[in-house]
């Protein structure tokens, strides 16, 4: 994904980018900007290209920060929305700390065109209380992009960003935002709130579960958030999280016909497996069935990752057949290596069976 995004920062993009800035600011020189920003472009990673764009842009805009922001505000509606528009909040994250109010309004505006989630963290890092007070107002904004920014930007462990140690140490720091968004109807917002809570569960599981226990599940949006937020704890078999959603605490099942249809696979192929899960109780059991892949790392050690397989209500003494394919290809977040891998089936947090397979890269 990062490679695909990196390719968006190309010469054609910068030429169009520069033309739009020239329309908004007559002293902007497109040819000079493109020459400066594409220097050594092929050597830069995705985030390096993003940051280089902000740095070069600064040299081609007025020294006065407010004037620069006014130009950015004029330009951004004329560009294609998406990852490349993160340049705008990144500029604010770099240069706006002496102009707090202007910067907050700019980040609020820019977030609808991409996201200001990374840039706002630069302000949280410098003055958490002042910034979180603004974000609490964003949580009740009519624009769902702004509401989502309130939650996403204050996540303790936002991917591709630094951790917010203040929230990790004291998760109540963002409680007011979570409370205001717990009944939000927008899926974009709900996902962020759930991910925020899932982040908290990694360091403060007891605090997070106590909060979810207090939230009313009668609201379908709150229930969705609670369920998605608890996914990591459910996979670990946390008893409180299982009870929140009526999963069987003492599941009694056995597996039959568990088999790998292709126990040796090549990179780019899918591992296929099938199993029958059989109830050994005289009552229905609500089950969360997951599978864990133990990936081989470069040094030969194993790195496990749990994936959701199926949720079901298994009737008394009944059985269910499950078939699954899991594709193996390289991502920016995971590179595969040849060797003996393992797959493990987990039911309500308990390992039921584990077997090996070979991956050839």
CATH topology of the largest domain: Serine Threonine Protein Phosphatase 5, Tetratricopeptide repeat
Structural class: alpha+beta
Strand element count: 8
Report how far the terminal alpha carbons are from each other.
Answer: 20 Å
Number of separate helices: 17
Mean pLDDT: 94
Q: What is the radius of gyration computed over CA atoms, rounded to a whole number of angstroms?
A: 24 Å
Order of helices and strands: HHHHHHHHHHHHHHHHHEEEEEEEE
Percentage of β-strand residues: 15-25%
Q: So what's the overall shape?
A: globular
Portion in helices: 40-55%
Q: Which oligomeric state applies?
A: single chain
Task: Examine the secondary-structure arrangement and name the CATH architecture of the largest domain.
Answer: Alpha Horseshoe
- Give the low-pLDDT segments: none
Offer a quick outline of the entry.
With 361 residues, this protein is α+β, with helices and mostly antiparallel strands.
What does this structure look like?
- By secondary structure, this protein is an alpha+beta fold.
- The protein has two domains: 2-244, Serine Threonine Protein Phosphatase 5, Tetratricopeptide repeat (Alpha Horseshoe); 253-360, Immunoglobulins (Immunoglobulin-like, Sandwich).
- 44% of the residues lie in helices and 21% in strands.
- The chain contains 17 helices and eight strands.
- The strands form two sheets. It has a five-stranded mixed β-sheet, with no helix packed on it.
- Strand 7 and strand 8 (350-360) form a beta hairpin.
- Helix 10 (144-152) packs parallel to helix 13 and helix 13 (187-201) packs across helix 14 (205-214).
- It starts with a helix and ends with a strand.
- The model has no long low-confidence stretch (mean pLDDT 94).
């Amino acid at each position: 994904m990062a490679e695909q995004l990196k390719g968006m920062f190309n010469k054609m993009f910068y030429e169009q980018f520069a033309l739009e800035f020239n329309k908004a600011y007559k002293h902007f020189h497109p040819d000079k900007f493109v020459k400066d920003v594409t220097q050594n472009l092929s050597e830069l990673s995705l985030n390096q290209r993003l940051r280089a764009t902000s740095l070069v842009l600064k040299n081609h805009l007025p020294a006065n920060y407010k004037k620069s922001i006014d130009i950015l505000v004029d330009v951004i509606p004329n560009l294609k929305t998406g990852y490349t528009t993160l340049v705008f909040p990144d500029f604010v994250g770099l240069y706006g700390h002496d102009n707090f109010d202007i910067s907050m309004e700019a980040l609020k505006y820019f977030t609808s065109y991409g996201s200001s989630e990374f840039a706002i963290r630069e302000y949280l890092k410098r003055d958490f209380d002042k910034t979180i007070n603004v974000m609490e107002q964003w949580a009740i904004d009519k624009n769902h992009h702004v509401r989502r920014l309130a939650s996403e930007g204050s996540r303790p462990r936002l991917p591709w960003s630094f951790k917010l140690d203040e929230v990790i140490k004291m998760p109540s720091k963002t409680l007011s935002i979570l409370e205001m968004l717990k009944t939000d109807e927008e899926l974009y917002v709900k996902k962020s709130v759930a991910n925020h809570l899932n982040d908290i569960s990694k360091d403060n599981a007891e605090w997070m579960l106590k909060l979810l226990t207090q939230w009313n599940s009668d609201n379908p949006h709150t229930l969705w958030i609670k369920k998605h937020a608890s996914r990591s704890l459910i996979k670990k078999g946390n008893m409180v999280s299982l009870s929140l959603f009526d999963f069987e605490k003492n599941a009694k099942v056995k597996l039959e016909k568990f088999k790998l249809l292709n126990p040796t696979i090549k990179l780019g192929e899918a591992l296929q497996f099938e199993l029958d899960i059989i109830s050994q109780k005289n009552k229905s059991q609500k089950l969360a069935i997951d599978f864990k892949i133990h990936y081989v790392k470069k040094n030969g050690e194993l790195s496990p990752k749990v994936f959701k397989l199926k949720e079901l209500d298994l009737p008394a003494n009944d059985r269910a057949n499950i078939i699954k394919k899991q594709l193996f290809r390289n991502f920016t977040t995971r590179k595969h290596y040849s060797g003996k891998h393992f797959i493990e089936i987990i039911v309500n947090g308990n390992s039921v069976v584990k077997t090996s397979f070979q991956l050839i890269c």
